[in-house]
Design a protein that fits this description.
Length: 462
Amino acid sequence: MNIKLSIFPVLLTSLLFFSCNSEEKKQADAKQEVEEQIQYEENVSIEKIEEGIKKYILETTEKSGGTFNIKNDSLDLDLRLVRVHTEYLSHLGPGSYFACVDLADEKGDVYDVDFFLEGTEDSMNVVRTDIHKLNGKPFYTWRQNKEDKTWSTVPIENADEGLLGVVEGQDEFEFYYDLTLPEIDGKGKIWIPIAETNPFQEVEMLSVDIPVKENYLTDDQFGNKVLYLELDESHSHKDISIAYSVKRLEKSPYEADKDEDLEQYLKPNTLIPVGKQFKDIALFAIGNKTKNDPLIKARALYDYVIDSMKYIKNEEGTYGTGDAVYACDAQSGNCSEFHSYFIALARSVDIPARFAIGASIPSDRDEGGINGYHCWAEFYAEGKWWPVDISEANKYTALATYYFGHHGANRIELSNGRDIQFNPGPASGAINFLAYPIMEIDEFIVKPKTTFTFERKGRLNS
């Protein structure tokens, strides 16, 4: 189907050309028609188009019992509104408009749907819908005919089905956690995170190479496990190695436990405060979007963090602590700042949100080094936990839709939560977050050299 775009200089020229061969009355009529069309177009603002598509979707959703249904020859979808892409709202001609909208199904799959509307600013009806993308993957693109200026959809053939940096479905690999102890000239203690099995990763510890007897601790609040070792001078410069076999599933929104304490994910952490400062920012980000739908609110906050922050590791080294106040002020940081900022905003408008950390496994090769830790977040809405990866969405904007509700299978989780407490714990107090080991010598923090490496099973890149 071709869509005629309204380009008023062209329209005006064609009509005036026609009127030059008509009677005076036809000239006047044509001129009046053009003036009315131009005036009509100017009166319908982008904000009115946004209001029109939202009104249509929300009213249709209410009439159908809480979901927006899209049906074609191969799909029958019950969806919920997530976001209207205001940057793509446009006029197609007098009384004709275009809107691009994200809607999600109950599994968390996000559909990018193109809507074509007709009518007035107070009464718009949808005359056509096309499902453009699924989780960021396009089914077609748009192409303009240079001669008649119409637009038509063109199927994407032989497109790469993969998403940049993402392993979908399942990934399987061995993960190696290695560190070298520093010079120990006193009483040493170390807490090393231990990866464990959960609904999205099956973990088997293949080997543990340590210089002393192993001892494991678990924190009471989040259930994280650490290898706790007490060390002395004789252990200086010794190596510690832990090897895992991991089968990891791609994560999408999943049901929360019925007895889960959600209140703990509304409370502040040491570096993730909750209060007026963040609430004001969150309400600004949400704007005139519906204020009683946590999914729409969360998407607005997700987009705000993507748009307002830059992924920068500054020279001063002040990044990487997951300090939400620093993230707010500097508008930059690594994954820890991105997700701490999002969590602070979400909690401040009563959306439970939580933090997790581990490592991202490269998708473009099957073995080798890993560039440090990686962290992410989840928020609670509609009885489910929704995974987000905002720093990756910021770096790869084409994947922003995917990372709202999904994590690739190519990652390993080492711990979750903030202000983690063990008994015995560090003299410095609760652990901010736990990916690299926490080590003390005579109660002073030291940082042993730590590296992550991997080897994938069932190679992707053979």
